[in-house]
Amino acid sequence: MITSVGGVAVLPRHRLSCHCGAVVLELALPDGIVEPRRCDCSICRRKGAIVASVPLAGISVVEGAEFLQLYQFNTKVARHYFCSRCGIHTHHQRRSFPDQYSYNVGCLEGINPFLLNDVPVYDGVEHPADRKRPAA
Ligand SMILES: [Zn+2]
Questions:
Q1: So what's the pLDDT on residue 2?
Q2: Strand ranges (DSSP E) for 7-112?
Q3: Which residues of the chain have pLDDT under 50?
């Protein structure tokens, strides 16, 4: 449970913004930043962002809903949102856990994601939804 990064508190309700400030979200983070990670899937490897997840109800759009653009590809299950003005990815609805959003930790106001230690890399190349289950 990460409730402070480099001496900056992660608030129970923390604001997240894109670079230009058009898009502002409020996140419910009662347990701080939970399991921050990187992912090596085709889109995350290009973004390079550290992400963490919240339940869908844990994100509300405070400002700039009209600037949020949806990007989908391949199975079209995951919903990737970015600011149409500055291009920054703010959050996405997950394919592996559609009842969760992942958010861009680098967009949390005041938080420097490079101060997080030992951020693991999630195996997004062999996506959990694509793994073959052993025959029962
Ligand atoms: Zn923006």
A1: 95
A2: 8-9, 13-17, 24-28, 38-39, 51-55, 59-63, 68-71, 79-83, 89-93, 100-104
A3: 135-136
Tokens of 13: 């309700």
Q: Let me know if residue 65 belongs to a domain.
A: yes
Rounded to 5 degrees, φ, ψ at 105 are -60, -30
Ligand 1 center–CA 82 separation, angstroms: 8
Q: What is the pLDDT of residue 128?
A: 61
In this structure, the dihedral spanned by the alpha carbons of residues 20, 25, 28 and 29, taken in order and rounded to 10 degrees, is: -20
> Which CATH number belongs to the domain containing residue 88 in this structure?
2.170.150.70
**pLDDT tens digits along 75-107:** 998 999 999 999 999 999 998 899 999 999 999
| DSSP 8-state symbol, 45 | H
| Interval between CA 5 and ligand 1 midpoint (Å) | 24
